[in-house]
Amino acid sequence: MTTGESAITPQTGGFVPKLNLGMFFGVRTVSILATVLFCVGIDFFSGPQFMSRYAAGLIFLCGTYVALSVSLNLINGITGQFSIGHFAFFQIGAYTAAGCSKAFYATMHLPTLEWLVLMAIAGSITAAIAGFVVGLPSLRLRGDYLAIVTLGFGEIIRIATENITYLGGSKGIDITPHYQSIALIMLLAVGCIALSRNLLKTAFGLGFLAVREDEVAAVAMGVNVTRIKVLAFIIGSAFAGAAGALYAHKYGFIIPDQFKMDGSFIVLTMVILGGTGSVTGSILAAIILTLLPELLRDLHNVSFGGLIATALMVLVATFGIKRVIDTHFDLLKMKWLSALGVLAACVIGEIIIKMLLDLFPHVRTHAPIDGAQLRMVIYAATLVIVMLLRPQGMFAHHEFSWTWVKKVLHSKTAVKS
Amino acid sequence: MKLNNCSRIQFLAGALFIGAIVAGCNPSTTTSTDTSSGNTSSGSASGTVKRPAMATDKPVVASGNTIKIGVVASISGDQKPWGEDSVNGAKLAVDEFNKAGGLNGKQVEMDVQDSQSSPQVAKSAADKAISDGVIGIVGEVSSGNTIEIANSCFEAAIPDVAVGATKTTLTDIGNNVFRVCYTDAFQGPVMANFAYTTLGLHKVAVMTDNKLPYSQGLSQDFETAFLKLGGTIVDEEKYESGASSFTTQLTNLQAKDPEGIFCSGYFTEVGPIVAAARAMGLSVPMFGGDGWDSPKILQSGGQAILKDCYFCNHYTNEDPSPAVQSFLAKWKTAYGGVPGTTMGALGYDAMAVTLQALKDGGKADSVSLRNALANISDFKGVSGDITLKGAHGNPPKRALVVQIGPMTAKGFQKPVKAYVPGPDGQVLDSKLQ
Amino acid sequence: MMLGATHLTMPFLASLDFATLPQQIINGLLSGSIYALIALGYTMVYGILKLINFAHGEVFMLGAYTALFVSYFFGFEPNSPYHATSVWYLVVMILASMTVSGLAGVIIEKVAYRPLRNQARIASLITAIGMSTLLQFGGQLFLPNSPPPNIDQRINPFSQQIKFNLVPHDSSLLAQLNVLKVTKSQADSAWKTRQKLETDTFSPSPEGVRIRSAAQEADRHFQDLSSRYQTSGVTVQMALGRIVTIIITIILMIGLTYLVLFTRQGRAMRAVSHDFDSASLMGVNVNSVVTFTFIIGSVLAGAAAMMDATLYQPGLQINTFFGLLPGVKAFVAAVLGGIGNIPGAVVGGLLMGVLESLVGWCGYTGWQDAAAFVVLIVVLLVRPAGILGSNEVEKV
Prior knowledge:
Largest interface: B-C, 53 and 57 residues
CATH topology of the largest domain in chain C: ABC transporter involved in vitamin B12 uptake, BtuC
Oligomer: heterotrimer
Low-confidence stretches of chain A: 1-9
Structural class of chain C: mainly alpha
Number of strands of chain A: 2
Number of strands of chain C: 2
Helix content of chain C: 55-70%
Strand content of chain A: under 5%
Number of domains of chain C: 2
Shape of chain C: globular
CATH architecture of the largest domain in chain C: Orthogonal Bundle
Structural class of chain A: mainly alpha
Largest sheet of chain A: 2 strands, antiparallel
Distance between the termini of chain A: 32 Å
CATH class of the largest domain in chain C: Mainly Alpha
CATH class of the largest domain in chain A: Mainly Alpha
Mean pLDDT of chain C: 86
Radius of gyration of chain A: 24 Å
Mean pLDDT of chain A: 84
Shape of chain A: globular
Strand order of the largest sheet of chain C: 1-2
Largest sheet of chain C: 2 strands, antiparallel
Strand order of the largest sheet of chain A: 1-2
Radius of gyration of chain C: 26 Å
CATH architecture of the largest domain in chain A: Orthogonal Bundle
Order of helices and strands of chain C: HHHHHEHHEHHHHHHH
């Protein structure tokens, strides 16, 4: 939570060793208080007397995925290193916490929350070491090769945990303090967001952006590219590891199957949808993509004909809208109207095609499909559609900031008067 | 790119990291020991480990006009044949019970949740059923999935009646966990006896599915019993569920020249394993546990599985006893044909036992249900007599070893030998009847 | 540290069974041929577009499903009665697989890669990953997936095992073996005649038990000597189907080499892979060359899929996710051989197959899949150009 300064001006106030009790400290105190209130508040309001275990679990998952996507955004979006094996760090953090809890929790008599904090730190340390190891190839490899290497790393970790009996093998590990701490995961998420935002307001942090934009120019300007790349991996993986530790304790057991490639894919989709480089985008996309499949859980009977019709029409809609985007319109309004027109045509088309398909007995009597199976399909389709239509994602490089709010308010009042 | 000091240190760190991973494993010639901690323990003989007691202070009471009993089964995924059959069997029992008047007029309603053949989904399926207010859960078949369900049930303080989960340590989770089938501690020695005494095989190789707790436990039980009888295990090979190629393992195995091969996995992989083994020239008898039970094994096993293949099952449709025949008649009326796997009968038995306990307890709440379940004695089930009283949750049941043959109207399994557990846990021959 | 190394390696080496090594290497070469065919698709697309076509594994998967449905069409449905098989069924299946895979490859290229050609390569890579996942999970909704179907093994007319004797066996044991064989057949026939008198052949009377034990004892003696005979020499065996697979693979590769080296289209492909923009300036229709490359790569993958599911591993169970792992391993094979380099893909494929077999031979069967990724990381760190690749830009 920072003041409404533009992203480009570096801090100057804090370096002068004069106790300037003004806006600077005031805003920071308020921010920290607000954070603590927020975390404790959410934890309180998600207790069993207010909402079901299921809903509380959802909030926890949202927090986890926010932390994951913002930390991945640090590596992918801000530093421009293409890493798609993020779940490996998540898994390392989870397994570290599980191993430590299994070995030491019974003997050390610490209260649960303190133990969880300790475990999160332990998880983040091991994940950071792993991030350091993965940062090695990033120095020598181009974008697509680095992606494959990070993916491969993730799979190696998963296969290793499946085969090493000390780590539980494919049966996994049972974890004793089986406790879901929403306060801690929210604190982690907020911390991650704060770090990402504040990093970009320092001179050192701008080096990350420089590495993303043009490495050669960055080196020429004296930026230590090596250090920045590796540091990006370390920080991103540390947060993922801490999230993994808390996730492990929430579930009470972890098995290697929970950490398949699909997980990395989901986090990547969130970052892309939100916009690589935009922290706000990552947060929103993480929340949307976590909650959306839960709505599908109650859809038990998706008709087969409807499914085919929807798939076809989504395809047509995507290409229609892409055509609209590529066409040069004079007014932005025309563009929006055409896009809406395409969508409306597709909805009508879907209904018509569905009626036509239901005439076929083979389609009509096909077993209905459970909504839960559509989860990964929707993620994958979202990724492809976003890449085709708006590769910069929802928010491109924009961020939410108080200046923007002030600007909007001022422009509104200016129009009024 | 010159390798400066920083890069050298990073390279070394990376090499150490990878080396640590590689050094952490050992050539896997021994089956892994049961390392799961927490609520399960590694006591193998039933009755030796004290079961944690389920909380009785806050019983889940059935509210409204119906009594909800959860059914968690794999209606989708690789274990679909078992899931579908167990749900259908359970439904038969519920319909019968409701037609006979229910519990003092209150009808029983099944809350079916799909575990999608996966342990994590099984856990959330159980949690969903619990949040729907069920007073007990019937499920599941796969031991890995059932462990998660049993843990959830223990935390929620409701009983769990497993349909076909045979992993021995399952009932150690708590005194709310029961099953209507035999355990691997019985099944392993049964197959060891059959292999050693009946088939006369003294040197056997073992293929284990490293991803299934069931398979690892069963292989261990088999090997211990087989070694005790005087046989030798010439080779142990591992594979993973979902693998499609077994050439490497079978080549290693073939070199050791076993007289027989014990495959403790599920039918999904065993079919291709048998086909590949026979194609490679391994014509020795192959046998396994109740994980083989599904008509799908004929498809993937092809011609290979019709020759010299045996497995251990719970009952067979060809049993002329009146209990089995009347069950088959009921099934035919409701669904047509016969149940494809034994989980139809076991699903029926699991639900029937639960409903009997509901009637015995008289009250529609979880604590009285659990207590009544713990007192079930000589319940005449389709798959045999079920006694849960004093049995640590594991009823002594008869095991049938069957030989696989071509599919007929009654099924594809021909019973060849029967075994019952003795009072001291030994394996005794029994009449096939 | 050296002492520690020897302490670790010596018992490890002693536990290896060198007698099975030739068989495992042969197995590896045979499975490598499948990887090589798939790797060719990856390497050609990368050579031209500098794009890693993640969806190639799914094209492979679609080819296998096509072969499955064609086999159903010919009457080999599950639980169908006996049906004679013919080589022509296989010919139709492989042609159908190749067609459908080729079509799928072209459609994927037009839908997902062409619109993004002008943007950063990362964008195409992300879209490729998205397409791959979409096809896997989307296919799950439309194709039979769980429990996974398999192509009926009866459709494979080449099921015999061919044996090659590398090191001759101990012939002195042969005489003893024959004697034991006679004893065994006598005991077996005694038990067979006895079985007719028993009510329950699996729980016989005491006399029956005696005869059965005698038969089993004779069987065991014969087996023991037989295995000693086997281990005294080295014999490798391969299924005829696998030999047919490798023959077809060689034919396809010769066809591909001819295409690339001696035809106009091949020259155009080489030109485009050398320099995309200059080729278009020279009048090469770049779009059609790209489409053509995708077709060729996908056709090869389709052929590989059909052979894998029918001849190489009869009865292989296919589901929508089974293309992922062979796809990744084939990609690693392409990188290992030098990405963009056609002979490199073949060499890389064969090496990957052998490496996998060796990892399994050492007893680490669970780590076989990880071996591919480890190889990838090592190659990319040590020699990114691959074995046959050169450090300059020139490929193919």
